[in-house]
């Protein structure tokens, strides 16, 4: 058992912070003795470790309290955070290598290609996309289609990746905010923009286009993407437009 000052020295957390955690019911001491001293045990030590983990991951005190209260999902949550941290570490390693190569280039020791300059950023996006949607793509179109899509994305130029793609997406999302009539010039423009945006990383056909927007309605992740950015009903609107112009 530890008195609060001993627990503070052990954990590196100040006495003032431990008292505050007690006040907000985030970390209660094991007991308060007759003299009014807070007493902590191994149990509180484990709880504080989890609190510090979550604080390092930028969770607020309120979020931390809610997460720790849900004991049934804690293991799955920490496993998920572990994988996220590994992915972040891998990305930072790529960025460090890119910075090192950039330094060498500026010293005249290396010449990087345009593709090499943006490889780390593309790898991060590909990893995120594979984690979120990779299995659905494999199940629907096969492993070869996923690899072909990733290869095509890797070959995008700086202009395409940081200029054309964001511009097309921005215009598409703006147009989807309106209650578009089908057919109309606006609807035709939405169809063309969406097709062009997908074509940056897909060998798009009308059949693939149709199946993708069908999946948008069935998958809450896709639906949330369009509805959050362009308002409720945007995903349905896009679906209907693609179905009209793809047939």
Give structural attributes.
247 residues; 3 domains; 13 helices; 74% helix; extended
- Give the N-to-C terminal Cα separation: 73 Å
Major beta sheet, specifics?
3 strands, antiparallel
List the uncertain runs.
Answer: none
- Structural class determined from secondary elements: mainly alpha
**What is the 3D shape?**
extended
H-E string? EHHEEHHHHHHHHHHH
**How large is the count of helical segments?**
13
Average pLDDT level: 86
Using the CA coordinates, give the radius of gyration: 26 Å
Strand content: under 5%
Give the number of domains.
3
What's the helical proportion of residues? over 70%
User: Quick one: how many beta strands?
Assistant: 3
Strand order of the largest sheet: 1-3-2
């Amino acid at each position: 058992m530890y008195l609060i000052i001993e627990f503070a020295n052990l954990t590196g957390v100040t006495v003032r912070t431990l008292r505050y955690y007690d006040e907000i019911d985030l970390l209660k001491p094991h007991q308060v003795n007759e003299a009014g001293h807070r007493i902590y045990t191994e149990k509180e030590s484990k709880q504080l470790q989890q609190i510090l983990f979550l604080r390092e991951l930028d969770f607020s005190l309120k979020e931390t309290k809610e997460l720790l209260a849900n004991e049934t999902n804690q293991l799955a949550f920490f496993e998920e955070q572990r994988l996220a941290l590994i992915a972040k570490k891998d990305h930072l390693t790529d960025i460090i290598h890119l910075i090192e190569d950039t330094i060498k280039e500026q010293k005249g020791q290396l010449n990087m290609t345009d593709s090499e300059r943006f490889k780390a950023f593309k790898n991060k996006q590909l990893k995120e996309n594979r984690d979120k949607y990779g299995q659905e793509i494999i199940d629907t179109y096969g492993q070869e289609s996923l690899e072909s899509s990733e290869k095509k994305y890797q070959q995008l130029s700086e202009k395409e990746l940081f200029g054309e793609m964001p511009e097309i997406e921005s215009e598409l999302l703006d147009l989807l905010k309106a209650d578009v009539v089908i057919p109309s010039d606006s609807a035709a423009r939405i169809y063309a923009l969406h097709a062009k945006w997908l074509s940056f990383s897909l060998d798009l056909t009308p059949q693939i286009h149709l199946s993708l927007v069908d999946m948008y309605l069935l998958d809450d992740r896709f639906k949330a993407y369009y509805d959050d950015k362009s308002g409720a009903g945007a995903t349905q609107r896009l679906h209907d437009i693609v179905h009209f112009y793809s047939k």
